[in-house]
């Protein structure tokens, strides 16, 4: 979807809404049991991680929680990331759990500026799943790895009894190499940064939801599952000083932008009318009652760059097939630190908060 | 359990049994559906990996499938490994799924000679599991990581609906640094090598099985779950030229020795009477009808070293608390390449083959 913003927009009118009395609407701290929302990539996921895992593991890293950890090991600067994939159905328009498991981890590595190099593959199979299904998924993983330029070098296979899994769960972890001079992280966004998205949002989530619910919207909506390593390298070649990158998967663009706002302590203002929403996504979202800002993507990125770099960043993204529809959707401000607001097309302002739980469970 | 072999045994009498007509007793190639045995770490697991995953991923590495992949990246020589943990019950005498998930991957890294450095942690939680259970497991992971000298640096949390998991599944992947000059791999074993095990076998598997079946054997049998990085570094300091290392987990000592025999094309003769089996394990195995050679361990290693290095290797292992009961259990021979046989205490010979499927499902 092409947008009409070919240049960086003028700073929007900023009269922030009164947010002083806003607070989390639900009491979440005392969940005695895990609920689906804990896996949604929103507030509840963050609570589980921050209150339970991080203290046990020895605290959060000083530079915040990115999509990858970046560390120096044996003289190399490495990015290291992991994700488990529990998407259902296993096959959907535009992809499968197999290519998702490769692209998802490749993209997490790429968001630290790394060149993805190798992946691991660990599967948990449910007793009774057809071996032909496992074979198709393995083939999709191999094909996706070759397309992304990475090798799957180590793996593991476990089987659980029927009724204790859901066909196939896949974990991939990955290692990438961060080139010298690259320093990308959610904490590096700052007031004045321009927010860019690489293309139309919401395709992956709507594709899964349509398939799962047996809905049709006139045209088949295909997932945007794609490896973003090449797009990121093209962007970094033009703008080595990119501040922050995210691939907006679970929780969608809203979650990614909120995480960067929170980690950096900057406010973000999105221009709602500038966010590229493909017509089929807009149509499906209106039927399903979803907000496209919260719907998962698997082949898009959001970039925070200093304003003087914005034109070069846009040009570099648009010159790549996976970034042809890149566009500016907002900017960072000094007001309301850590909070994201959207200017609506009618001139109003609304808070775009981190989702609580999940709109669409088991999307990836 | 101390053994009585303080020196390397003389070569055993080798008149190999007639094995020319031996073949796999069950037709396995045409499983249309996954069965529990595909996750047992034996013949069926190998078939799934070799016939299905490896062709899709682009073939096996030239140096065989070790517990870790070893690769050069950015000038560093890295070991990279992954395992998913689906053990039940989640807590058992001597440990939990949490410390198992740390020790298991730390040990896989250590078996390539690497110093384990960092881990990822990805959990798949089942809706409804108590958050306090998740908290105890996270704490066990953090404690185990500190004990092993590794950091958990990146993670992921997914939730699946009740009835599609089993409380908690954990994947860990890990990266270690392989010191210069170390070249350890299953393909490097050769005739004349001595086979050493670091201590009494079978404790982990028997601990899990006893707990699961509600059996008692007079004394509580605790898992041997432990991190082996320090033990391996002590061994390598004494004998840098160790040929092959494995931690005999799923499939036990029999599977580990078979994998090394197959990868190296050497024959292996084990002295059954020399294999250290703690009395409580022997007792439990006789009640449960298990062969201790096939029972999982989580804190033991098997080492293949050249005969001139055997005394130094034994001394180094025995000087470490986790290797105090190290002992020689066999040797590599030129006969029956790729096959493992055991000399029984009565002077007979039996084939110790790779297990087909699982004796004990979901042991790790």
Automatic annotation (TrEMBL), chains A, B:
GO terms for biological process: protein maturation. It comes from the Bacteria. It holds the Pfam family AIRS. SUPFAM superfamilies: PurM C-terminal domain-like, PurM N-terminal domain-like. Residues 67-178 form the PurM-like N-terminal domain. Gene3D superfamilies: PurM-like C-terminal domain, PurM-like, N-terminal domain. Residues 190-336 form the PurM-like C-terminal domain. Belongs to the HypE family. PANTHER family: CARBAMOYL DEHYDRATASE HYPE, HYDROGENASE ISOENZYMES FORMATION PROTEIN HYPE. This is Hydrogenase expression/formation protein HypE. It comes from Streptomyces qinzhouensis. The gene is hypE.
């Amino acid at each position: 979807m092409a947008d009409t913003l070919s240049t960086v927009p003028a700073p929007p009118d900023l009269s922030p809404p009164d947010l002083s009395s806003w607070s989390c609407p639900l009491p979440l701290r005392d969940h005695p049991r895990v609920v689906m929302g804990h896996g949604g990539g929103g507030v509840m996921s963050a609570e589980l991680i921050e209150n339970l895992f991080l203290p046990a593991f020895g605290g959060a890293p000083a530079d915040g929680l990115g999509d990858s950890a970046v560390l120096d090991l044996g003289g190399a600067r490495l990015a290291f990331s992991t994700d488990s994939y529990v998407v259902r159905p296993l096959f959907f328009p535009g992809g499968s759990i197999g290519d998702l498991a490769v692209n998802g981890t490749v993209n997490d590595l790429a968001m630290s500026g790394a060149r993805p190099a190798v992946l691991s593959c660990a599967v948990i199979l449910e007793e009774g799943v057809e071996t032909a299904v496992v074979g198709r998924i393995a083939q999709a993983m191999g094909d996706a790895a070759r397309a992304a330029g990475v090798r799957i070098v180590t793996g593991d296979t476990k089987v659980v009894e029927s009724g204790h899994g859901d066909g196939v769960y896949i974990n991939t972890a990955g290692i990438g190499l961060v080139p010298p001079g690259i320093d990308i992280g959610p904490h590096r966004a700052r007031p004045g940064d321009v927010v860019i998205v690489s293309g139309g949002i919401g395709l992956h989530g709507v594709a899964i939801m349509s398939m799962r619910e047996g809905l049709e919207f006139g045209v088949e909506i295909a997932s945007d599952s794609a490896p973003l390593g090449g797009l990121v390298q093209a962007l970094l070649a033009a703008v080595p000083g990119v501040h922050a990158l995210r691939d907006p998967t679970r929780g969608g663009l809203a979650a990614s932008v909120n995480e960067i706002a929170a980690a950096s302590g900057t406010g973000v203002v999105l221009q709602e009318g500038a966010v590229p929403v493909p017509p089929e996504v807009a149509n499906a979202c209106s039927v399903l009652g979803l907000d496209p800002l919260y719907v998962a993507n698997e082949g898009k990125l959001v970039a925070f760059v200093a304003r003087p770099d914005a034109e070069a960043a846009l040009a570099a993204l648009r010159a790549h097939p996976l970034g042809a529809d890149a566009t500016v959707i907002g900017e960072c401000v000094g007001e309301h630190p850590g909070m994201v607001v959207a200017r609506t097309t009618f001139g109003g302002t609304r808070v775009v908060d981190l989702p609580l739980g999940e709109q669409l469970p088991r999307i990836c």
